[in-house]
Amino acid sequence: MDSFPNSVFFICHYKKKSFYEANRQEITIHKAAKEAFNKLPKAKKSGGKLPTVKQLNEEFKEVLAEKKKTYSEYREAKKYMQDYVKAKHNIDEFMRQEKLQNGQIRKNDRHTER
Q1: Would you give the distance in Å from CA 71 to the centre of its chain?
Q2: Torsion-angle region of residue 50: left (phi > 0), alpha (psi -120 to 50) or beta?
Q3: What is the pTM of this model?
Q4: Parent domain of 6
Q5: Closest-CA residue to 45 (of 54, 53, 55, 58)
Q6: Count of domains forming the chain
Q7: 76 and 37 in one domain?
Q8: How many whole angstroms separate alpha carbon 97 and alpha carbon 101?
Q9: Cα distances (Å, whole numbers) of residue 6 to 3, 46, 109, 114
Q10: Do 10 and 36 have their domain in common?
Q11: Is 39 found in the same domain as 68?
């Protein structure tokens, strides 16, 4: 009778080991995902539980609103930069035309002056 628990232990251990070997990739991915989730600050606040779809949708709306706000700021900055580049080009061209009229540079030396 003493060998019975040992044989049951061996069979259970063997089944666990063979199950683990057969599903190693899925188990490893699951463990890595769980570990990564537990490292997130929000996971610590919610007690390690996954956020609900409602919470995710609310967070998405907040992020989208922030994106729209910052994108409008980006468009303004981009337009300002493009206007600056145009003005610089116009001034450079004006200065080149003046030098050309004064005979300081030859007509074919357009790109060497810049």
Answers
A1: 16
A2: beta
A3: 0.40
A4: 1-49
A5: 55
A6: 2
A7: no
A8: 6
A9: 5, 43, 95, 88
A10: yes
A11: no
